[in-house]
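ok so dumb question maybe but i'm new to this and my supervisor (M.) told me to 'just get the structure for TEX30 protein' and walked off. so i did the thing. is this what she meant?? sequence i used:
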Amino acid sequence: VKVKIPFGNKHIDAIFSVPEKKSTYGVILTHGAGGDMNFPHLVSLASYLASHGVLCLRFTCKGLNIAYRAKAFKTVVEYLKLSDEYKLSGVFLAGRSMGSRAAASVIRHLSQEDDDDDDFIQGLVCLSYPLHRPKLQSKLRDEDLLFIRCPVLFISGSADEMCEKQLLEGVVSKMKAPKTIHWIDNANHGMAVKGRTTDDVMEEINAQVFSWLRKNVELEHK
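this is what came out, is it supposed to look like this??
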């Protein structure tokens, strides 16, 4: 289902992947610095989640300014929260590369505002989190991650040139949130692995995301 979400004097293009049965939880998903919501990895994850009973809303926000991207993400969260059609008890924010930075930024700001949106957000999924620029490991983009309290899943390639394995493990060890890292062996930042098809890699990623979501929703209900 295509929707246009009002955003200032513009709008954000978004698409719902709707499961057959009514979903109580949803995932909001966005792309990295290049591309849009039709990036194949996002389409693959959205349809996988919907076919496993999880509502997924993916959106496009062009713009390389992280504050602007985070503002757009927050607008989409508000939109879904107030939706009469899909009454959800909570959402997980998810993004690829820069999209995951925007998601982390939104969660940090909401938790600092004592906003009731904070309870609505159940967790964060970071696909290829860009911890640093290529070859510039001295400056880490970890400030938002250290403030987050909700569960976080990282899925990163062990050969990601923007997320050196030991550096991410170091940041994760300092995080206060419940966290999980799933490494895709030999994958680069774009999740390409020599000798494996994109579909094969996506199957691994999609299954990991879904099982982590399910675990966290079950914990919530205990």
